[in-house]
Fold:
Amino acid sequence: MLEQLREDIQSVFARDPAARTTLEVVLTYPGVHALIFHRMAHALWRTEFKLTARLVSAFARWLTGIEIHPGATIGKRFFIDHGMGVVIGETAEIGDDVTVYHGVTLGGTTWNKGKRHPTLENGVVIGAGAKVLGPITVGAGARIGSNSVVTKTIPPGATVVGIPGRIIVREQAADMDPGRKAFAEKIGFDAYGVGGDMPDPVARAIHGLVDHAHAMDQRVDEMCEALRKLGSDYCDRKPPELKDDLLETGDAPPAGNS
Structure:
């Protein structure tokens, strides 16, 4: 148990740059305190001293603001950062090197006995305020964004955001079409501000619309070139420019518009 405690403390330094000394971590990190008490409570729970285990768990909750049921199974190097408001249910199973932030709930969706809480495989990271509910599995290395609500099994390595949680695919800006980027900048849409670093299905749909508009713009250019060859000056007239206030999000519409 002492070796496990040493690993738990050392894992803090790997995941929290604010940690300076071992003494500081031992004395001031509520996530470490909660984990120490849970190791004790879980050992009591397994030896049928269930009331004593619940008392230890209740004391840890009062001390740290972190509620971990003594029946929950937690692996090595588990790190709770900040910790206030974390709730981990009885049948939750947590693998090695998992990180959760404050306000996270590993909860159930039924009052029935048996497995009703999530299983987190190795290396999972769950952002602040996220809710992972039901007897689902979150695959190794998966990431769950802050305030997401997840009720379905997540494959390894996936990133999940939103309510309800949806899987997004990481897409690097360098892999995107240069034509799309140039046209997006022309019409005032930041394709990469929305979706380059962490896109979601909405951003993908917008990118599709940008691609379509880019294709139509090219078609219009070809038609204008054909008209010029026929002697028409129709395309010499510049189209109206988009107003700056239309390119900004979150602003109220101009007065008089419905």
User: Anything to note?
Assistant: Residues 173-246 form one domain.
